[in-house]
């Protein structure tokens, strides 16, 4: 792609927006009040706003390799804090996608250098669910299930944070686990039972005010 083309595209986009709504950028510059924090994968094939059918200002977005929420990652923790405490989002969504390169890499034993510490977080998910995953003989189906279980575990990591626990108690913040199916373009709600998860983990991870 010619990088100069991007600026041409930007000019066209600005004109389209202004033609439809002359005050569009004035309103956009006045601040943001998104209702959703979206934590997704950095994969170039997955555009968060586009797949949800929303526009600028509707979603606060954080993306990294394999949509991870490690408690030692200050980037992820800062995003959650800002979105939950200051923007007061109503929903936190962790969205993975089938055929995720990060998840695939974590299923292999290759030494990938700098990526190793990050992939270890994903491999820990495999270790936790090894018994369930080992029962799936078809590699493609096991890969897809691993993607789903990784989303579930990252949702658990979201719930472990103090900001989210307080918001759940005080204003009924909700957490969701989704998967984007690249083959069909459909968003899939994993319908994770967070009440059960909360009950199971709160004995250890509950953080009181």
Written description of the protein model:
- One of its GO terms (biological process) is cellular response to carbon dioxide.
- GO terms for molecular function: carbonate dehydratase activity; zinc ion binding.
- This is Carbonic anhydrase 2.
- It catalyses: hydrogencarbonate + H(+) = CO2 + H2O.
- The mean pLDDT is 92.
- α3 links the parallel β1 and β2 (59-64).
- It is globular and about 55 Å long.
- The protein has helices spanning 3-20, 24-28, 48-52, 74-86, 101-106, 116-128, 130-134, 139-160, 162-171, 194-205; strands spanning 36-41, 59-64, 91-97, 174-181, 186-189.
- It has 2 domains: 1-30, no CATH class; 32-205, Beta-carbonic Anhydrase, Chain A.
- The protein contains 10 helices and 5 strands.
- Helices cover 52% and strands 15% of the residues.
- The protein is α/β, with parallel strands linked by helices and 209 residues long.
Strand order of the largest sheet: 2-1-3-4-5
The number of helical elements comes to 10
Which class of the largest domain in CATH terms?
Alpha Beta
Which fold name fills CATH's third level, the topology of the largest domain? Answer: Beta-carbonic Anhydrase, Chain A
Features:
single chain, 209 residues, alpha/beta, Beta-carbonic Anhydrase, Chain A, 5-stranded mixed beta sheet, globular
Fold topology:
Layout: H1 3-20, H2 24-28, E1 36-41, H3 48-52, E2 59-64, H4 74-86, E3 91-97, H5 101-106, H6 116-128, H7 130-134, H8 139-160, H9 162-171, E4 174-181, E5 186-189, H10 194-205
Parallel strand pairs: 1-2, 1-3, 3-4
Antiparallel strand pairs: 4-5
